[in-house]
Amino acid sequence: MLDLDHGRDPTSGAADGWAQDRLDQFNGTYVEVSPSNDGFHAWGETSNGASKENKAFHLTIGGKSVAAEVYYHSKAITVTGRQIGRRCQEAGNC
Fold first, then answer.
1. What is the dihedral of CA 50, 61, 80, 47, to 10 degrees?
2. How far apart are CA 32 and CA 39, in angstroms?
């Protein structure tokens, strides 16, 4: 699961460029607005042989502090059901 923090304008709903670039890689998966209303959650699987450890990335992009976390296991996530786009009908049926 990919958690993108502070990558969405809560008023317009538009994704910041850096967040949209990540979301574009999750075509065909369930993506929703996070509970904070200024981020996204995306679910998917990887077959790239990467480590299956949870990872967090904190960056400053255009003067804005942003964060992205990748979770493979052992993390409770609040699901909002506020799906964006029509990438997938529901989280378990992609």
1. -10
2. 9
Q: Give CA–CA dist 30/52, Å, rounded.
A: 20
Alpha-carbon distance 50 to 36, whole Å? Answer: 29
Q: What is the pLDDT of residue 10?
A: 94
Q: Classify each residue of 11-45 as buried b or exposed e, where b means 16 or more C-beta atoms within 10 Å of its C-beta.
A: eeeebbebbeebbeebeebbbbbbeeebbbbbbbe
Q: What is the pTM of this model?
A: 0.74
Structure tokens of 28? 């065909």
User: What is the spatial distance between Cα 67 and Cα 90, in angstroms, rounded to a whole number?
Assistant: 25
pLDDT in tens, 69-91: 777 777 778 889 898 876 665 55
